[in-house]
Design a protein that fits this description.
With 217 residues, the protein is of the alpha+beta class. Helices cover 33% and strands 9% of the residues. The longest helix is centred in the C-terminal third of the chain and has 31 residues.
Length: 217
């Protein structure tokens, strides 16, 4: 402040939000971003950009830093570039596997081969499932809501539209809706129960036929 008395009273305190932060400091230099109190017409910022900030006796050019809003992630279909309120699908999707069911039913609808095999073995529609799937990047390593997803990492880019325009979701919500209609753990269990029941009845009938043949003179 001593080197730049003209900014006194205009810079937001470090304990206030947003806080000053460094942006991409590399090679011994970087860009320092800080927030200031401004008028609605932006006249304070415009005036600052015509001056130079002195730090350690060195003059630095000031310019406006526009923070791009983060690309929204829909909390209904778990796809990017629109908020939940703007989702066109009248259906809730799972935040764990991208399929059209609520999170509470994930253990019933998970299509992972291990879960399908467990249901047939235990005849229980629900499994102790921890499988995830991201339809945006076609990954089985994280859920669509995970920060590990490349879509999440680029959602805060300075120009996110450029990246998103070149990298559409691998599978759209509409495609996942179609996938969801192909499997239901509860239905699979009922089919297996009927199969076992009919198989047992067939074996019983065969045994009775054998007994009848043994009794024939």
């Amino acid at each position: 402040m001593q080197e730049n008395p003209w900014i006194a009273g205009s810079v937001l305190s470090h304990i206030q939000s947003p806080k000053p932060f460094w942006v991409d400091p590399r090679g011994g230099s970087g860009t320092f971003v800080f927030s200031v109190y401004d008028n609605r017409d932006g006249s304070v910022t415009a005036g600052w950009c015509k001056r130079k900030l002195v730090i350690g006796g060195v003059e630095h050019v000031l310019s406006r830093f526009d923070v791009s809003p983060r690309v929204p992630l829909c909390d209904r279909c778990w796809h990017w570039q629109h908020p939940g309120g703007g989702c066109r699908l009248n259906k809730l999707f799972c935040s764990k596997c991208s399929l059209p069911h609520v999170d509470a039913d994930h253990s019933r609808f998970c299509v992972h081969p291990d879960c399908q095999a467990e249901r047939l073995a235990t005849l229980s529609a629900h499994t102790a499932c921890d499988h995830v799937y991201c339809a945006n990047c076609d990954s089985v390593d994280h859920a669509p809501s995970s920060r590990e997803c490349p879509f999440s990492r680029h959602a805060g880019d300075r120009d996110p539209k450029q990246w998103f325009s070149k990298n559409p979701a691998k599978f759209s919500a509409t495609e996942m809706l179609g996938r969801g209609k192909q499997y239901d753990g509860a239905v699979a269990v009922e089919v297996e129960k009927r199969r076992r029941q009919s198989g047992g009845e067939a074996q019983g009938a065969a045994a009775r036929d054998d007994d009848m043949h043994e009794d024939d003179p």
